[in-house]
Amino acid sequence: MMDHSLLEKKIKEKDIVALSKAITMNESSIIEDNIVIDRIIANNTHALDQSIVISISGIPGVGKSSFINVLGEFLHRKNLSIAVFSIDPSSELSQGSILGDKTRMTELSRLDHVFIRPSPSSNRLGGVGINTHNNIELAKIAGYDIILIESVGVGQSETVVKQLSDIFLLLTMPSSGDELQGIKKGIMEMADFFIIHKADGALKIAAEQSQKDIEAALHMTRTEDLENRIFRFSSVEKIGLETIWDALKNYAAALKKENKLIPRRRQQRAYWAEESYKNIILSHFIAKHKLEFDQLNAKILNGSYVKLDEILALVTND
Amino acid sequence: MMDHSLLEKKIKEKDIVALSKAITMNESSIIEDNIVIDRIIANNTHALDQSIVISISGIPGVGKSSFINVLGEFLHRKNLSIAVFSIDPSSELSQGSILGDKTRMTELSRLDHVFIRPSPSSNRLGGVGINTHNNIELAKIAGYDIILIESVGVGQSETVVKQLSDIFLLLTMPSSGDELQGIKKGIMEMADFFIIHKADGALKIAAEQSQKDIEAALHMTRTEDLENRIFRFSSVEKIGLETIWDALKNYAAALKKENKLIPRRRQQRAYWAEESYKNIILSHFIAKHKLEFDQLNAKILNGSYVKLDEILALVTND
Questions:
Q1: Chain B, window 4-33: residues with a beta carbon less than 8 angstroms from a chain A beta carbon
Q2: Bridge partners of B229?
Q3: A17, A18, A261, B145: which could join B80 in a potential S-S bond, CB 3.0 to 4.6 Å?
Q4: Is the pTM of this model over 0.80?
Q5: Angle B261-288/A308-316 helices, nearest 10 degrees?
């Protein structure tokens, strides 16, 4: 077993094996492992505010992996180190897309100073992403300049994404105005940037229309200035990435200048701590009353109706 | 305030106002309201196994509402009564799609013996769907023959959908084989039926290819016989709905005949009861230790790191 101060030292040296090991310990169901990671993070809070965390969300098929591949290569050419996390809550029975994580982001995965961590292999109590915040903290301690988070970002997970990142980038596809209903209000309100992806070939004109539709929809729902927030892009043609990157950088710089970044990150830490409390409370309580819960469960499976009062009595008489 | 036995009586008479009121009480954050509904359901367990619950899932833009509109009208012509629930976990800030629930399913909403309940207006502790199971039970007590559940069914919510329905129907769009990666393995493993929607006009040929791709993908991952489980359909042309409906009916009949339906529903009830325990445990514990949790939260927002040990001590010393 590796000494923990050695593990900490090696993470800070950007040792990929050490970082991977730490992430595995963070995602472990053994509380002692979690505590080791918690202490490493507590020792390095000074290092947590250097990196920029950008989430890239969008529905399946929008091309998140291609975009991250292209963006990652672009940032790598600027000598920035990159960590990529996938928090796609894709599957209960078995994780990942049909084609699998390994065949995607091929070019990016070959580069130095690039760390790619696919989705965790199983869902954990309380849902996706509870440990992901600490995974990101570990990547910050390892000194990665840019941390990219890939997420399907549809439904519940859009909140998760917002609570993990400094910048929330929504990828959409060129489509007719009618199909704008596919983009939910919530995500329209939460996203900081909009990229109309696949804006090439036959979809070029549809992409222009999509941009206008999104601008019009945002105009109805949001009050802030949204100049330089909506872009068309093609991961095939790769034109205009410098402009998008400038906009992202300027946005992050403005957040810092207006003193919004640190409070937001603290609020995020508080959000994830609360999720962590909840997990601990549930594990503790359910373990303590395992016998009673198993009995209630057996009653239901035998066809009886367990009344709410019975459950309330069990909890309040604890 | 309405008398509860009167409320129960009126629900059983399929009184839409009473059913709506009961659903609101079920979704209420006032525990006394929840208990009233729980008792009404406990009184009517004999009525819970009559209806068939079909979930219709698919990514935003696939045309779930149009499909439900067409399917609902079709079932209505067969003199079946229909309740439709939407459990789209679409938005944290404000619920629903940009075009809104009210403008969709127009034709269906005008018919008699059709009850439509849009998404709940706010997210609740523990995520989407915890109360939805009881909402469905209420619709069963009201005697609706067919209960349709519309859900985005991407990510975490696919499990929720599976735990709510007898039949899980996945809507997909015609697309090239390459884009099959958009359909996650998990949902491919969980869905009972696959409808390649929008199989009309320019997409007709792509739909045929999609069907072959899905058949091939399923062949790799699933062992059971999937004949009569994959269909192409157009909600514009509306051809072949009788065939799809026959397949759904036969599937439900086979589940009953093989004694799978009742055990599955009991397992679902146990699943939702567990979600309910968890909510009660969390509410109780967090209320009991509100002061300590508020202090920890304040510490984090002030920039301190709260160690996992502190939280563990608070919970285990309870």
A1: 31
A2: none
A3: B145
A4: no
A5: 30
CA separation, residue A269 to residues A125, A134, B297, B303, B315 (Å): 19, 9, 9, 9, 19
- Report whether A156 contacts B89 (CB < 8 A): yes
Per-residue pLDDT reduced to its tens digit, A38-59:
999 999 999 998 899 999 988 7
Distance CA B297, CA A271 (A): 9
ipTM score of complex: 0.83
> Quick one: pLDDT at residue B264?
94
Residue with tokens 């990665």: A144
Determine whether the interchain pair B38/A308 forms a contact, defined as Cβ–Cβ distance below 8 Å. yes
Tell me how far apart the alpha carbons of residues A224 and A227 are, in angstroms, rounded to a whole number.
9
Q: Whose structure tokens read 């998760």?
A: A160
Hey, CA dihedral for B104, A199, A229, A74, is it positive or negative? positive
| HSE-up of residue A179 (Cα within 13 Å, Cβ side) | 16
Chain B residue with CA closest to A278: the answer is B282
Q: Is residue A40 a contact partner of residue B308, using CB atoms and an 8 Å limit?
A: no
* Residue located via tokens 């349709």: B148
Backbone φ and ψ for B93, nearest 5 degrees, come out as -75, -50
Q: Which residue of A has its CA nearest to B297?
A: A270
Query: Are B184 and B148 in contact, with CB atoms under 8 Å apart?
Result: no
Q: Which helix (H) or strand (E) holds A55?
A: strand A52-57
How close does chain A come to B142, measured CA to CA in Å? 18
Q: How far is B150 from B64, CA to CA, in rounded Å?
A: 7
Q: Is B34 on the interface with A (CB under 8 A)?
A: yes
Residue A165: pLDDT band with limits 50, 70, 90: very high
Give, as one character, the DSSP assignment of residue B104. S
Cβ neighbour number for residue B162 with a 10 Å cutoff:
23
The pair of structure tokens assigned to B50 is 């009559």
Q: State the maximum Cα–Cα separation within chain B, in Å, rounded to a whole number.
A: 66
Given a contact cutoff of 8 angstroms between Cβ atoms, the answer to whether B108 and B68 are in contact is yes
Q: From the CA of A50, how many Å to the nearest CA of chain B?
A: 15
Nearest partner of B278 among A250, A127, A19, judged by Cα: A127
Rounded to the nearest angstrom, the minimum Cα separation between A171 and chain B is 14
C-alpha to C-alpha distances, B288 to A103, B125, B315, nearest whole angstrom:
49, 17, 11
Contact A153, A57 (CB under 8 A): yes
**Distance (Å, rounded) from C-alpha A247 to C-alpha A230?**
10
The encoded tokens of residue A15 equal 């040792």
Q: Element (H or E) spanning B168, and its range? A: strand B167-172
Average pLDDT, chain B: 84
Q: What is the rounded CA–CA span in Å between residue A29 and residue A130?
A: 12
Q: What angle do CA B229, B84, B157 make, to 5 degrees?
A: 65
pLDDT digits (tens, 9 = 90+) for B14-65: 999 999 999 999 988 888 999 999 999 999 999 998 899 999 988 777 888 8
